[in-house]
Amino acid sequence: MTALQGHDLSSLRRQNGRAVLAALWSQDDAQTVRQLASVTKLSRPTIEAALSDLSTQGLVSTESPKSRGSGRPSRAYSLKASGGVVIGIDAGPHGISGTIGDLRGDPLASHSSPAADLSGCEDALSAIHHEIDYLLASTPHARHEVRALTIALPGIVDPTGNLAVSTVVPDWVTGGLLERISAAYPGAHVSIDNDAKLAALAELDQGSIALGETAIVLQAGHRISAAIVVEGRVARGAHGAAGEIGALSSLGWSTAYERLKSDGDPATSLLFAASEGNPRALDIVDQFADNIAEGLSALSLSIDPHRTIIGGGISNVGEPLAEALRTRIAARAIFPPELVLSSLGAHAPQRGALTRAAEHVRESLLSR
């Protein structure tokens, strides 16, 4: 038998460490060496060596032994989720929202900062940095402990991870937003993605879309956009533009929100009145449903989804909006999907961004 060389032993040790870390990552409760051996099929000495390495790297916490009857109590180990933070940001021309979480992506704090106009790249950058600083100040963590940061944006993000097109904030496309934020956080993995697609990821993560299902996720707020999930995966398309049916001006999605306030009342006031059952406001919500039902029906006919999830700020209207859309889609679709309101509302993009950031950390740690 050929003896393992030094680099082979080092590679094997890293592989064993990844196996133990993956096992800890998948468990919420602390695990004993015996439990880890059952999952990883590694020997006790191998697991103990891997745990020692992971502890040195600050990735594993050790819990005090707990007595379980006679015999020596077993020490337990868990992922040190507090060993850094991940951040998800939802950025748009009307404000910035964010959530900071531990390495698993479990939220620690959230915050929103409305703004009058962030369409300029410089203003957007300043607002994003301010939001991140505010979130960090809500935790014991400092800027250098940010492991990953994902930003949801209103635009098409291409396969290379860059903002390729945005009719909402075109200045962000040419302003080098991703590069400049990455430079401010050199120790973190910084990425951007389309806000509707990240909202769909959030719905998948929380189980609103079951494994293998096909769905439409509509984000209805200052702008109307959609993402599609095909057999349990967010569809991107060849250029990152899958689901961008709102680009068809004939559908009226680009002006639907403005028509909510066409009679002079702020849209937020009308939406609140509709949620309270105000007849005039409900009539306006019906008109809004008319404006977006054609596009939703076209998407339904294209992908035959199990369900459609309505999110964004306008989803706060509740069942009156959902029922108005159900009626209109049922009249157009061959197989009308189940239509439900998102429990995440307007917060889905930032939660999806947080999930994506946590995924980056996990993939990075398990691939090194």
UniProtKB/TrEMBL annotation:
Name of the protein this chain belongs to: Putative NBD/HSP70 family sugar kinase
Domain of life of the native organism: Bacteria
Residue ranges of the region described as Disordered: 55-76
Name of one Pfam family that matches: ROK
UniProt KW keywords: Kinase, Transferase
Gene Ontology MF annotations: kinase activity
Organism of origin: Zhihengliuella halotolerans
Matches recorded under InterPro entries: ATPase_NBD, ROK, WH-like_DNA-bd_sf, WH_DNA-bd_sf
Family: Belongs to the ROK (NagC/XylR) family.
PANTHER family xrefs: BIFUNCTIONAL UDP-N-ACETYLGLUCOSAMINE 2-EPIMERASE_N-ACETYLMANNOSAMINE KINASE (PTHR18964:SF149), ROK (REPRESSOR, ORF, KINASE) FAMILY (PTHR18964)
